[in-house]
Write a structure and sequence with these properties.
The complex is a heterodimer of chains A (238) and B (619). With 238 residues, chain A is mainly α. Helices cover 53% and strands 0% of the residues of chain A. Chain A is built from eight helices and no strands. Chain B is mainly alpha-helical. Chain B has two domains: 45 residues; 449 residues, no CATH class. Chain B contains 21 helices and four strands. A two-stranded antiparallel ribbon of chain B has the order 1-2. Classes of the chains: A mainly alpha (238), B mainly alpha (619). The interface between A and B is large, with 56 and 64 residues.
Chain lengths: 238, 619
């Protein structure tokens, strides 16, 4: 088991790190099993590649496995071999059953966070000039209408945020509004969660449909205020 | 209810009516009804008032059939247009450098080409018939816009065919002196025509995604405006490089399969070397491909935000995670092949380079882990609740372009260094300045890697346009700078280097051949995947924003259904290529077979592409 020892230890250590180590880093959270599986797959692939780079290392890696599965006179490992032969099909059966049996759990989500906006919104640009007054006004509207959820610091941690899953967007995160054009925000604010297209399903967004309460000009000003307050810039092409 | 369904119902009623009679009568009627279904389908819209806009076929569906045939045609075309580039290059190397083995290799590449060419044209013809039959309204519109380029395309096809025949069948007859020069010129012409044969249909396809429509003007002016649309050149460049990659890896796979099956040491050496060249060509193109892909996506996003988000952030964004996985396997497979080459072809090198290989492998895997980490994770309800949504608070930052561009550049750098390591293995520097040169190369590599990472991290803190226009471009330029610095320096060093261990061809283990085949399958899957992504980004438009798809198929299939068709296309293409290769090598096997029979045949081997020149040279 000498040549097999390191790979087994590496796989176990990697699993322990992903399952228990990484989630405990400050600011982190538990990883979904899909991601853990992905990283373990890469680790296993890497081990396989490295161990088969030369004839000697390949033999050192495979021979114990082959001997264990097919060799004679393996002594005490004989019982373990039978154990594997019994447990492995059971494991495969359990996996198959688990993935095909009817369950009362909702299916795993692969939600689309940024569904494409309708065509009529794609060509829009902010008609409100980016002046200090307009930005200040936008921040005021933001404080009144948006900050309860999205937070006074634009970080998605408003007083009402804890009541929502998924949490309200964190505008200070460079992977949210900084990736989008202003017209996209205009569409999302104006139409809200109910205005999401089919590709945005499941529609898990509590965003109100602000077009019924706010005039377009206010929405454009809120967008100015949001970008300025979150220290981000919208995506542009110039 | 569609006319097809009405037809089916009618057949069912008739069957029920005769159910009480003998079974054979029902069977006959069933057969007749089944045979009649396609005609009912094809004539479906013909009975309604007005011109026919769509036709359909039962069971498969017109869209699926066109999808499959178009994809197969594209893959074959990619192979047929990619192979002449490096076949010609190999011939030039042999011509200028005098190494005959390159000429033999070029000829072998071209042999594969001739067999594939007719199949490509065949699928092109089938595709055209299907498009005209199933989408008459769209084809009428496209013909109206592109009529002049249709004529040019036909002319180019004639020229390409004539040149290819002259190039292949004249190979042995034009081996010496000025005739060889003429042959090399024919190879150049072949590539010249092939380039235009590629970019003209690219104009038709890209017009559908990013149309430029002139209301007035002559036919030529309208066609030219439509041709020069925003995504035309990005896709021309992207496909040109992708064709080289596809051709290289498929030739590599061909060599891999042959390597696994041949017996004689000479043949093992030859196919081992051919596999190496195929892999090298594939890697060479692969290094440039992400840059071209990035430019294409940038142009699409800039052209239309909706299309850009559909691809990169919307429902098609999952395809890019699959793409990362396939590209990752390709990078790993190519590097693995290089490393196997060091270990097996250069005896004694393993101990020297094993540590470096491990470091490269770990770096590649880390990069791949970043590349494959999605922005929104697949999670159960409980998992999403623990994360506070579909984003992971720590790893979510890895899901955006700044991280992806950084790791793709690093993977390119690592792969390049793998090649350099392979190049240098078994040689000892003798130049006095070797130490300095190696220090410079090391410094360039380390500084470049740091610069790429710094720009990647910095990219999170600048406006998107700064990242896209300056940071990402700088990352690409840095990588190009490294390649352009280290390649000539290494070449200079090796010029005076002493060979300590001779390269032993034909000593690779079977898994090297399998890795070549795996690489080819990854490239084919990649092309089917991204072909679907590009095409479906138009969503419910035939011509984006101009002509709406009003057929029953104006919806985007679920990713699982789409993946099924992609896998089917990949499998079918592999079968077709296997058949083509089998046909191409039939002549070789015949000649290699012992016995007196072959020389007595009045016409030599059957007159199929791929066999004629050798046969002629034997007489």
């Amino acid at each position: 088991m000498g040549a097999l020892g390191k790979p087994i230890i590496l796989m176990v250590a990697m699993y322990a790190f992903l399952k228990f180590g990484l989630p405990n880093i400050p600011g982190s959270a538990p990883l979904p099993s899909s991601l853990i599986f992905l990283y373990l797959l890469l680790t296993a692939g890497g081990i396989f590649m490295f161990k088969t780079l030369s004839g000697e290392s390949k033999d050192a890696f495979w021979d114990p496995i082959r001997r264990f599965l097919t060799g004679e006179n393996i002594g005490g490992l004989q019982a373990l071999r039978y154990g594997v032969f019994i447990l492995f099909p059971l494991l495969v059966g359990w996996q198959t059953y688990g993935s095909t049996a009817v369950s009362d759990l909702p299916p795993t989500e692969s939600r689309t966070i940024h569904p494409a906006p309708p065509g009529e919104y794609t060509g829009l640009s902010n008609p409100v000039p980016k002046t200090p007054e307009n930005i200040m006004q936008g921040k005021g509207f933001y404080a009144a209408y948006c900050s309860p959820c999205h937070g006074g610091n634009f970080d998605g941690k408003g007083p009402a945020a804890r009541g929502f899953i998924p949490a309200p967007a964190n505008f200070a995160d460079p992977t949210t509004i900084a990736m989008l054009q202003e017209s996209y925000l205009f569409w999302r604010i104006k139409k809200g969660g109910v205005g999401l297209p089919i590709e945005g399903a499941p529609w898990k967004s509590a965003m109100p449909r602000w077009e019924v309460e706010l005039p377009d000009e206010w929405i454009w000003k809120i967008i100015l205020g949001e970008y300025d307050g979150a220290h981000q810039s919208p995506r542009t092409w110039e | 209810m569609s006319v097809i369904q009405q037809g089916v119902s009618m057949v069912q009623r008739v069957l029920r009516a005769v159910a009480s009679h003998d079974g054979w009568l029902a069977g006959l009627l069933l057969m007749a009804g089944w045979l009649a279904l396609p005609s009912l389908g094809i004539a479906a819209e013909g009975t309604t008032a007005g011109p026919t806009e769509y036709r359909d076929i039962p069971y498969v569906g017109s869209r699926n059939l066109v999808w499959i045939v178009a994809q197969l045609h594209l893959l074959l075309a990619g192979f047929v247009l990619g192979v002449p580039m490096f076949a010609w290059l190999c011939e030039v190397i042999a011509w200028r450098g005098g190494e005959k083995r390159y000429d033999k290799l070029a000829k072998e590449f071209t042999k594969l080409l001739t067999s594939a060419y007719s199949t490509t044209a065949l699928f092109g013809g089938i595709l055209l018939f299907l498009l005209v039959a199933f989408y008459p309204k769209l084809m009428n519109y496209l013909t109206d816009v592109f009529f002049p380029s249709f004529l040019l395309y036909c002319l180019l096809f004639l020229l390409e065919t004539a040149t290819l025949y002259l190039y292949w069948y004249g190979w042995d007859a034009m081996q010496d002196g000025r005739k060889k020069t003429l042959h090399v010129f024919l190879g150049f012409l072949l590539n010249f025509f092939a380039l235009f044969i590629m970019i003209i249909p690219n104009a038709w396809a890209t017009f559908q995604s990013s149309p430029v429509v002139l209301a007035d003007g002559t036919a030529f002016e309208r066609a030219w405006a439509a041709t020069w649309n925003p995504t035309w050149w990005p896709i021309n460049i992207h496909r040109l490089i992708a064709n080289v990659v596809l051709g290289g890896y498929i030739c590599g796979a061909y060599a891999g399969v042959r390597y696994l099956s041949v017996k004689s040491p000479e043949e093992r050496e030859h196919y081992d070397w051919m596999g190496y060249v195929g892999n090298f060509i594939g890697v060479f193109g692969l290094l440039a491909l992400p840059f071209a892909g990035y430019w294409l996506m940038r142009e699409i996003y800039q052209y239309n935000q909706q299309m850009g988000i559909t691809l990169m952030g919307g429902f098609l964004s999952w395809l890019f995670i699959l793409q990362a996985m396939l590209i990752g396997v390709l990078f790993l497979g190519s590097n693995y092949y290089f490393w196997l080459g060091i270990t097996y072809r250069i005896p004694g090198s393993e101990g020297k380079y094993r540590r470096a290989m491990l470091m490269m492998l770990v770096s590649l895997l880390l990069c791949l882990a970043v590349w494959m980490t999605p922005h929104s994770l697949v999670a159960s309800i409980e998992e999403a609740q623990k994360m506070g949504g579909a984003h992971h608070p720590l790893l979510g930052v890895l899901g955006v372009m700044s991280a992806k561009m950084t790791v793709s550049n690093l993977m390119i750098l690592i792969t390049f260094m793998s090649f350099v390591m392979y190049w240098r293995a078994g040689k000892q520097d003798t130049a006095g300045w070797a130490k300095l040169a190696k220090a410079v190369m090391g410094a360039v590599l380390v500084l470049a890697s740091i610069a790429v990472i710094v720009l990647g991290v910095w990219g999170y803190f600048v406006p998107a346009i700064v990242r896209i226009n300056y940071f990402s471009t700088s990352q690409v330029l840095i990588v190009i700078f490294v390649i352009l610095t280290i390649t000539p320096l290494t070449a200079l060093l090796l010029k005076s280097a002493k060979t300590t261990t001779e390269m032993v061809w034909g000593s690779m283990p079977p898994r090297a051949g399998y890795s070549l085949v795996l690489n080819a399958i990854m490239v084919i899957l990649l092309m089917t995947l991204m072909g679907y992504a590009r095409s479906s980004s138009r969503v419910h438009w035939h011509v984006y924003g101009v002509m709406r798809d009003t057929s029953p198929y104006a919806y985007s299939p679920a990713l699982g259904s789409a993946s099924f068709i992609m896998a089917f296309c990949t499998f079918s293409f592999c079968l077709i290529v296997a058949f083509i290769f089998w046909v191409a090598t039939m002549g070789d096997k015949y000649k290699a077979a012992p016995g007196p029979g072959k020389g007595e045949l009045p016409h030599g081997i059957p007159a199929m592409a791929g066999g004629a020149p050798e046969e002629r040279s034997q007489r």
